[in-house]
Design goal:
heterodimer, A: 211 residues, mainly alpha, Four Helix Bundle (Hemerythrin (Met), subunit A), elongated, B: 567 residues, Cytochrome C Oxidase, Chain A, 65% helix, 0% strand, globular, disordered C terminus
């Protein structure tokens, strides 16, 4: 291979991760993302284990006395939840657009997803402020507060990671780097975004509904 | 060979950067492998010096060299260093070098992530040891049990950060290995033709992927408890200190298989080559490895029998169950050597040493699965003895077996056999001298992690013996360092295939060119290179008694091998 040939393959679009003539099964980069999501599942499993461990041993009741009506599925939280769930739909729509070679459609869908993600984070920040200022409920309010803020906080950090990922994919999309054949980064970010969404479904059910 | 002289001409850019810059920025799996191996070996030397300090203090009753606080830091940093900064990165380094070669790939699946994983290791080490400059290193033991670890000083925060960083490095490395093994295999290399080393690295990577994040989540809980007034491990806030043990050992038990399975892989590569026979029971070995991995997730609470918070019969039963796949492996190893033409070169000596000493470690581990016995020896030197028989006499013997076996491939130079055998002898004797007396001390009730002990009858003698053993092990490292030094200064004397090996790494030059292979032999079995040299043998022909009683004439090539190649 000539020097020019190498430079060309290095700068032009999506590098073929395997360098094999034809790819079979899952794409290597997507497999990497799915495995990473697998490890993330175990990270949240550790937090959920801590939650149910504390809850099972709670005396005399759960939530602890005095904190029964603090964590409520109020209008802010429900709005945030609906926005996050819908953002998975727009993300998936963006993926189908690029699969049909519709770059503009994908960019629009990604932008909407990005705005929804940022809105979720803003609503979560508002909810945190509300909990701390009106209820005096913080990370040091016993194990209940520690669990609530650690679990939702780390989920929020993952949403932020997803927002960063979507921003990168959006910039690359705006630069016209994706096509119906080459869009593995969009697929990987989409998989991660769905994962973040699913974690929230479990968190919301556990922390807000199951209490 | 022609390939290596051609290599510089194929560079895309002229070499304007220095050699150091090249090593610092490399994404080549072979260079990263060597970086892993040298870095972790340095940490091995540091951790070893810490061990010598510990054993010097324990040589006689009373406090002679270090005060209790320093001692606590010594055993904490010794354990953490040896596990997270020596054995894990050393295994990752060996696998980094060998796995892409054994699967016939040009590199790992994600070369830049591979470099990132490596550079997190020295950074993690720096964080861990920086405790000494910032008011004292971590002192709660490598297991960091709450509530002690909630109360300690800054060193524990740095310990937490170091372990989170090293954990990320391991998870990224694991993803890389799994993707490499599933997506980069050469044509014809089906899953059940993969070298056993590759199988063991695959299972290890799956364990890392699912166990390490749980430790990370536990470490974050600990950090929140220590710094933000969290209540995870604080009973007064509704928390539970036992939770730490659950989370830690849910990681910690798979972790011990993470430390030993690569050594199984190394030894299982070496035994067939130096017994001049195929591995006995390849498939049984693969399934035994997979079931050890799976069972590893169901036994964490056998570290917690005395807490009273776990269901004893369940965890005791599953712990015993692990003896079955482990026993299968011992059977495979012994049957592979049985009536083989044993070649007692240094790698083989280490492999045999591994089998002998790991057996002791495995047996006294099975004792610990007996609940009443465990109650008796909990937190005594019996546990220390068991741990060191499996991790030192097991993993470290396996590591040296691998280093001697693959050194010619990595450097193009053969290590000196005489010095290698001297080192093996010193290490074998030293390990037994250091760790066997601990069994007796443990049975007698000597507790671990204490700077001093009562001068009870026999204790002083046994401890003194153990200290002599520790220094013998340290002595055994000197011939190795000298061996590596003189070999690297010597000529390139290693042929491409010095041991008459079976697997693909020996099909390229020593050391391999940057792109690894010019061409690959046809892969029709788990021994493609053997097939190339001696012709494809029907399965287990060579496993029958040696001496030519059953196969005087060369076996005819099997008729149906073309459809087998597609399976």
């Amino acid at each position: 291979m000539t020097a020019e040939g190498q430079v060309l393959t290095m700068t032009h679009g999506e590098p073929d991760a395997t360098a094999l003539p034809e790819e079979q099964g899952v794409n290597t980069a997507l497999l990497g993302m799915l495995l990473f999501i697998g490890s993330e599942v175990m990270f949240f499993a550790g937090l959920f284990a801590a939650y149910f461990n504390a809850r099972a041993a709670a005396q005399p009741a759960w939530p602890p006395p005095g904190l029964e009506n603090v964590v409520e599925p109020n209008i802010v939280v429900i709005t945030a939840t609906i926005i996050l769930l819908l953002s998975s739909v727009t993300m998936q729509y963006g993926l189908t657009r690029i699969q049909h070679d519709d770059r503009r459609g994908m960019n629009r869908a990604l932008l909407i997803t990005l705005v929804m993600g940022v809105t979720f984070l803003s609503l979560q920040a508002y909810d945190y402020l509300d909990l701390v200022s009106t209820h005096g409920f913080g990370i040091n309010s016993g194990v209940y507060g520690t669990l609530f803020f650690t679990m939702t906080g780390f989920h929020g950090a993952h949403v932020f990671g997803g927002v960063v990922g979507i921003s990168i994919v959006l910039l690359r999309g705006a630069a016209g780097q994706f096509s119906a054949k080459h869009h593995i980064a969009v697929e990987a970010v989409s998989a991660y975004w769905h994962f973040v969404d699913v974690v929230w479904i479990f968190l919301f059910s556990t922390l807000y509904l199951l209490k | 060979m022609a390939t290596t002289t051609l290599a510089p001409g194929t560079l895309a850019y002229p070499r304007s950067r220095s050699r150091i810059y090249e090593w610092l920025t490399t994404t080549d799996h072979k260079k990263i492998g060597i970086l892993y191996i040298t870095t972790s070996f340095l940490f091995f030397l540091i951790g070893g010096l810490f061990a010598l300090l510990i054993r010097s203090e324990l040589a006689l009753p009373g406090i002679q060299f270090v005060d209790p606080e320093t001692y606590n830091q010594l055993f904490t940093i010794h354990g953490t260093t040896m596990i997270f900064l020596f054995v894990m990165p050393m295994m990752t380094g060996l696998a980094n070098y060998i796995v892409p070669l054994q699967v016939g790939a040009a590199d790992m699946a994600f070369p830049r992530i591979n470099a990132l994983s490596f550079w997190m290791v020295p950074l993690g080490g720096l964080l861990l040891f920086s405790g000494y400059a910032l008011g004292g290193a971590a002192d709660a033991g490598w297991t960091g049990y709450a509530p002690l670890s909630v109360q300690g000083g800054t060193g524990i925060d740095l310990w937490i950060m170091a372990l989170v960083l090293l954990g990320m490095s391991s998870v990224l490395g694991a993803i890389n290995f799994i993707a490499t093994i599933f997506k980069m295999r050469a044509p014809g290399l089906t899953l059940l033709r993969m070298p056993i080393m590759v199988w063991n690295i695959l299972v290890t990577s799956v364990l890392l992927l699912f166990a390490v994040p749980v430790l990370t989540s536990g470490l974050i809980m600990l950090y929140i408890d220590r710094n933000y007034g969290g209540g995870f491990f604080d009973p007064a806030a509704g928390g539970n200190p036992i939770l730490w043990q659950h989370v830690f050992w849910f990681f910690g038990h798979p972790e011990v298989y993470i430390l030993i399975l690569p050594a199984f892989g190394i030894v299982t590569e070496i035994l067939p080559v130096f017994s001049r026979k195929p591995l006995f029971g390849y498939k049984a070995f693969v399934f035994a490895t997979a079931s050890i991995g799976a069972l590893g997730f169901s036994v964490w609470a056998h570290h917690m029998f005395t807490t009273g918070a776990v269901y004893l019969p369940f965890f005791s039963f599953f712990t015993f169950l692990i003896a079955v796949p482990t026993g299968i492996k011992f059977f495979n190893w012994l049957a592979t050597m049985w009536r083989g033409q044993l070649v007692l070169k240094t790698p083989m000596l280490y492999a045999i040493g591994f089998i002998a000493l790991f057996l002791i470690g495995g047996l006294d581990g099975a004792f610990l699965a007996v609940v009443p016995f465990d109650f008796h020896v909990q937190d005594t030197y019996w546990v220390v003895s068991h741990l060191h028989y499996v991790l030192f006499a097991g993993s470290v013997m396996g590591i040296f077996a691998g280093l001697f076996y693959w050194f010619p491939k990595m450097t193009g130079r053969m290590l000196n056999e005489g010095l290698g055998k001297l080192q093996w002898l010193l290490m074998f004797v030293g390990a037994n001298l250091a760790f066997f007396p601990m069994h007796l001390l443990g049975l007698d009730g000597m507790v671990r992690r204490i700077v001093d002990y009562e001068p009870n009858p026999g204790w002083t003698e046994l401890n003194f013996l153990s200290t002599i053993g520790a220094f013998t092990i340290a002595l055994s490292i000197l011939p190795f360092l000298w061996n590596v030094f003189i070999t690297l200064r010597g000529p390139r004397n290693a042929p491409d295939d010095p041991w008459d090996g079976n697997t693909l790494e020996w099909a390229t030059t020593s050391p391999p060119p940057a792109y690894n292979f010019d061409s690959l032999p046809k892969i029709r079995s788990e021994r493609p290179l053997f097939d190339l040299k001696y012709g494809l043998q029907p399965a287990h022909a060579a496993a029958l008694p040696a001496g030519g009683t059953t196969h005087d004439k060369p076996p005819a090539p099997p008729a149906g091998d073309s459809d087998e190649a597609h399976s």
